[in-house]
Amino acid sequence: MKWPFEAIEIINLPKDQDKATTHRYGPNTFKLHRLPVPKQGRVLGLVGTTGIGKSTALRVLAGKLKLNLNPPGWQEILTYNQGSELESYFIGILEKKSRAVIKRQYVDHIPRVAQGNTVGDLSGRELQRFAIAIAAIEKSEIYMFDEPSSYLDVKQRLKAAQAAETPLGSAEEIIETYT
């Protein structure tokens, strides 16, 4: 299939190459192969089946999860990514020149962490819209929307996409994941 204007770029992942493994939760467990490279002024979409590491990649890119290199420190992460676009990206996160906001994947967990009764009474659709709105109004350079279309009908998915692509903060990068 041919896409106009280079709208979609497909990057093949390695089948089972340890040298391309950037994160692993433990022996014989899930492996994350390479990280996507966010670019300023661009929307980056991560699309794939459940369990391939989209949410893990977002947590790493937001600086909320360290790659488990040996040892798993930020200096090792910078050394591992030395000379790549990810090195300067991570330096921006570490030096707090760039701030990442993540719209959480599991919006049904929001009532457990939010204060007040009104949030606890919201439906899945309303929780999704609430989570997108909260993320979109934060002032940040990087916005990450993890599974922004779950619980939404077609019209609401289009509105959510518009909100995600034009957040109220000063977005440099926007990353979205879809199953």
Quick tags:
single chain, 179 residues, alpha/beta, Rossmann fold, two-stranded antiparallel sheet, 7 helices, 16% strand, globular, P-loop_NTPase, ATP binding, ABC transporter ABCE, RLI1, ABC_transporter-like_ATP-bd
What's the layout of helices and strands?
Blueprint: E1 21-24, E2 31-33, E3 42-47, H1 54-61, H2 74-80, H3 85-94, E4 100-103, H4 110-113, H5 117-120, H6 124-137, E5 142-146, H7 154-165, E6 173-178
Parallel strand pairs: 3-6, 4-5, 5-6
Antiparallel strand pairs: 1-2
Helix pairs in contact: 2-3, 6-7
Keywords: ATP-binding, Nucleotide-binding
GO molecular function, one term: ATP binding
Domain AAA+ ATPase: 40-179
